[in-house]
Amino acid sequence: MDSSLINVEFLIDTFFVALSGVPIALLVTVVALAIALPIGFFLALTRINEIPVLNGFTKVYVSFVRGTPIIIQIFVLYSILPLILSRIFEQYNIDFPIYDVNPLWYAFIIFSFNTGATLVEVFRSALKTVSAGQLEAAYSVGLSTAQAYRRIVIPQMLVSAMPNLCTATINLIKATSLGYAISLQEITLKAKVAANVGYNYLEAYIDIFIVYLILCITVEYLFKVAEKRLSRYKALATA
Amino acid sequence: MLEIRDVHKSFGKNEILKGVDLTVDKGDVVVILGPSGSGKTTLLRCINFLERADKGTATFGDLNVDLHSASKKEVLAVRKKSAFVFQNYNLFNNKTAIENVAEGLIIGRKVPKEEAYKISRDALDKVGLSNKYDSYPSQLSGGQQQRVGIARAVALNPDVILFDEPTSALDPELVGEVLEVMKDIAREGTTMIVVTHEMGFAKDVAKKVIFMDGGNIIEEGTPHEIFVTPKEERTRRFLRRVLPGEYDFEI
Question: Which residue of B has its CA nearest to A149?
């Protein structure tokens, strides 16, 4: 029996086990972002323009998501969703094995739902940094609302949204570690399962720690590069 | 060429325009004067649908629209016949000077890119910015930014250009360069409606001067009629305030 504090061999082996969970973690992150970005943006617009019903709905949605721990959201959705769906399937005599669904699908739904609420607030504050005059000028030269947003407002809005988008993305990557609660084959679950065999939890946790750190630092760097590119028109002023 | 009839506009309980009529002929420079809060800017903004009037009609040549209930299509049609120069320039911050000018041509009016850039270069040359094509607004002075704003309007070759206090946000020493550019394009026969506090510009360039107060047009006429022989007491009082000394002299 090895009496040293850390089993280095296990540490190294498990690092690669943890690493093999990265694709799933990134897949969940990318899909959740792809769904949450447009939802967050359009709901932010309904808040800013005070669109009657949607504005109220968005407020409730954001408060609900912010006011509850994500792990509880996961448990609730994971138990309620199949319950509702099986009831519906029963009603229409659809034969679908709802309890055999890959947890990946639940992860997509839960993390989109959660990140969408964060992004509403990110975009709402970013949109406010673009003066109303930019939109008016676009209208005055004959652009439609869609063209004005695509070509004038969104490029400027993104610059101020970037730091918060980066934070939201990193929080999302880290939150995918909670996927172990629904048996999602991601970084944390894989390393913990490996640790179960010989009770090498400390090594497994260190590995998990390092993998997330590498992942998040990389994402942070990518956002910094993107931010620099997007804000070229501002940077030149001082150059 | 441009006829505005019976424009009303309120913000909440505050009635800003109380039935304004305005006729502008092709090639005219019409200057609107008046104390702040008299509705000058709101009138311009209603003409270009940056503000929805509560009531009123506009006729641009053969295009007839209701300023209150115009459809999206009609709004776009009016905007294609007009251009707006803003008090705060409102250049697109994420675009260079030449991109600012070309944007409305390429996207709004579907002019081929190459032709749009040629028109844009000509417009920037005209306002004296031939060496600033690729500068971003943040790299330009206020006067230069407003000249790009004017180039952006001129390049569209609209039936009428609406100027909303184009020199009010400028440092005093930069006002001259912008007024010079405006005089140049006026001389070329551009139809302009100008809201301004620059009395000198009104006297030298205007074909017609309109004095507004409290949401109504109080008096209109040639610069001579307004500045030298005003009929209304409110006009006289306003001129005494903005042209101290000079005005007393002439009566």
Answer: B92
